[in-house]
Amino acid sequence: MFGEVEHELELHVPASEAWDLFGALRIGKLVEEEMPEMFQKVEITEGDGGVGTVLKLTFAPGIPGPSSYKEKFTKIDNEKRIKETEIVEGGYLDFGFTLFRVRFEVVEKGEDSSIIKSTIEYEVKEEEAANASLVSIQPLVKIVQVAKSYLQRNKAAKEAN
């Protein structure tokens, strides 16, 4: 069984600024610092931020779903501003999923505006199809909202100087 969920949010910053955050390791550091209620730890276990980098995400106690998992950067396209990660150990794979991919795409909307499109693609074994209900776009929505606030604070600080 294959599924997909998406979310879009407008960011009032240029696409290049949004991509500087989402296309690199900075987004992992940001969520660890600004979302302790969701993430206990985000650590690099392999790589330098490019394709092949592996992160271990450990969630805060009490968060529904897996307590941790490892994800690998499988695609980083700086031209199209697309970054994809796939779970490679633990997490949803322990619930019968054979694929759990997260994609962030930064779309230029105007000179000072962009859209962040977040997508989860998943595939789950037929006998575990009921576990598809575990998939939620809400954690990505929260991450994007935190990123939007961060980007707007930085923009306001630059304009004040």
UniProtKB/TrEMBL annotation:
<dbReference type="GO" id="GO:0005634">
    <property type="term" value="C:nucleus"/>
</dbReference>
<dbReference type="GO" id="GO:0004864">
    <property type="term" value="F:protein phosphatase inhibitor activity"/>
</dbReference>
<keyword id="KW-0017">Alkaloid metabolism</keyword>
<comment type="similarity">
    <text>Belongs to the BetVI family.</text>
</comment>
<dbReference type="InterPro" id="IPR050279">
    <property type="entry name" value="Plant_def-hormone_signal"/>
</dbReference>
<dbReference type="GO" id="GO:0009820">
    <property type="term" value="P:alkaloid metabolic process"/>
</dbReference>
<dbReference type="GO" id="GO:0005737">
    <property type="term" value="C:cytoplasm"/>
</dbReference>
<dbReference type="GO" id="GO:0006952">
    <property type="term" value="P:defense response"/>
</dbReference>
<protein>
    <submittedName>
        <fullName>S-norcoclaurine synthase 2-like</fullName>
    </submittedName>
</protein>
<dbReference type="GO" id="GO:0010427">
    <property type="term" value="F:abscisic acid binding"/>
</dbReference>
<feature type="domain" description="Bet v I/Major latex protein">
    <location>
        <begin position="3"/>
        <end position="146"/>
    </location>
</feature>
<dbReference type="GO" id="GO:0009738">
    <property type="term" value="P:abscisic acid-activated signaling pathway"/>
</dbReference>
<dbReference type="GO" id="GO:0038023">
    <property type="term" value="F:signaling receptor activity"/>
</dbReference>
<dbReference type="InterPro" id="IPR000916">
    <property type="entry name" value="Bet_v_I/MLP"/>
</dbReference>
<dbReference type="Pfam" id="PF00407">
    <property type="entry name" value="Bet_v_1"/>
</dbReference>
<dbReference type="InterPro" id="IPR023393">
    <property type="entry name" value="START-like_dom_sf"/>
</dbReference>
